[in-house]
Amino acid sequence: MAASPHTLSSRLLTGWGGGCIWYLERRVTRESPRRFLHLLRNVNQQWVTFQHFNFLRHMYVTQLNRSLKQQIKPKPEPAESPFLEKTSLDEAKAEICEMRPLVPPSLSLSRKPSEKALIEPEPTSVIEGSIDLGKETKEEKQWKEMKLRVDDLPGILARLSKIKLTALVVSTTSAGFALAPAPFDWSCFLLTFVGTGLASCAANSINQFFEVPFDSNMNRTKNRPLVRGQISPLLAVSFATCCAVPGVALLTWGVNPLTGALGLFNIFLYTCCYTPLKRVSIANTWVGAVVGAIPPVMGWTAATGSLDAGACLLGGILYSWQFPHFNALSWGLREDYSRGGYCMMSVTHPALCRRVALRHCLALLAMCVAAPALDVTTWTFPVIALPINLYISYLGFRFYRDADRKSSRKLFFCSLWHLPLLLLLMLTCKRRAGEEGTGAPQS
């Protein structure tokens, strides 16, 4: 059995010396593990400090190199080849898009130098073409000031005055003049024609001037001249003034004061009532219908000089026609009108929009029957106009029932040919001055 160190020291040295040795041995055996652990802790702390120092040194070197690499250096311009020149951009595009024919495997490996030169691609030409294309795209993206040219001015002014709408206004005015029970005076007709057209151009130009910030939000109107900046607002207002003043003057002093007053009132109603009301209330549709109903009344008053039942009937037909026409149009443009901030029936009151369109389709039937009763046409007119009136009423009912884009488009396109055909039938069945109708008083 092995002897412990305490018994060994007590055997070798007895007495006081052996006790001292035993005490020292016992203290060493107790405190040596603690000192060893403390030494290890100190070494670990020194190692962690050394690692941290190395980490900081690596970070410093990395950041220094990165800052040196991030310095801005001017990009060298690609040198153009002095041997190859391109005559046009089309040739460069053709060379880029050109497809090389595949080499068949049956061909021998021995080729002439000229054949190799023909088959090898031309990398320099491809590089030149890509550089030219890059320059072209950069030039297209750059902002360019739009300059007004004299050649473009007639087309811009035609779009500013809404030339198609102006043509519709002038045609309804001409129909009212022709349907009036008075001898046809060509000089008076031409003055009425020109004056009404100028008044319509003025009203439409002022309307576009007021609606520039709202038209820019709509896909339907974002390409108008004032929105695109093709002309200045001052030029637009000047053009409107130059149309309004002579137009009203021609209608007042060239035709009669009643027609001139109606023209001036229509300009005011369209620009100062209908235009701001479009962003406030759905009543703008009814106000706009009154604006569209006045031109045939102006034609009647220009021929007769008075405002009687026939003029009111023509105005009523145009008034009712506009509801299926515009309501069907606005139904497909609901997103556009809501984006532009306009308060339309199709956006805020869709059910009312469809009901109103159907009601006025049926109202056209009643007013066509009233035309011979007021001695405007013969009784043949309501009979021959019945098919087209029934058809537009049927499409109005389909629009009321289905409430989709397909039915609204059918109703809108029907309204485009319904009105001119209806006015043409009225002219065909017009009651002549010498004819006596059932509605006239018996002598």
TrEMBL record:
State the compartments where it is located: Mitochondrion membrane
What EC class is this? transferase
Q: Which reaction does it catalyse?
A: heme b + (2E,6E)-farnesyl diphosphate + H2O = Fe(II)-heme o + diphosphate
Q: Quick one: where is this thing mainly located?
A: mitochondrion
Pfam families documented for this protein = UbiA (PF01040)
CDD domains tied to this protein: PT_UbiA_Cox10
- Cellular-component GO terms for this entry: cytochrome complex; cytosol; mitochondrial matrix; mitochondrial membrane; nucleolus
Residues passing through the membrane, by range:
165-184, 190-210, 231-252, 258-277, 379-399, 411-428
Q: What is its EC number?
A: 2.5.1.-
The UniProt entry lists membrane topology as: Multi-pass membrane protein
Molecular function, one GO term: geranylgeranyl diphosphate synthase activity
- Which one GO biological process term can you cite for this protein? leukocyte differentiation
- Which key words tag this protein in UniProt? Heme biosynthesis, Membrane, Mitochondrion, Transferase, Transit peptide, Transmembrane, Transmembrane helix
User: In UniProt terms, what function does this protein have?
Assistant: Converts protoheme IX and farnesyl diphosphate to heme O.
Q: What family, per the record? A: Belongs to the ubiA prenyltransferase family.
PANTHER family per the UniProt record, alphabetical:
PROTOHEME IX FARNESYLTRANSFERASE, MITOCHONDRIAL (PTHR43448)
Please give the name of this protein: Protoheme IX farnesyltransferase, mitochondrial
Q: Which organism is it from?
A: Bos indicus x Bos taurus
Organism lineage: Eukaryota, Metazoa, Chordata, Craniata, Vertebrata
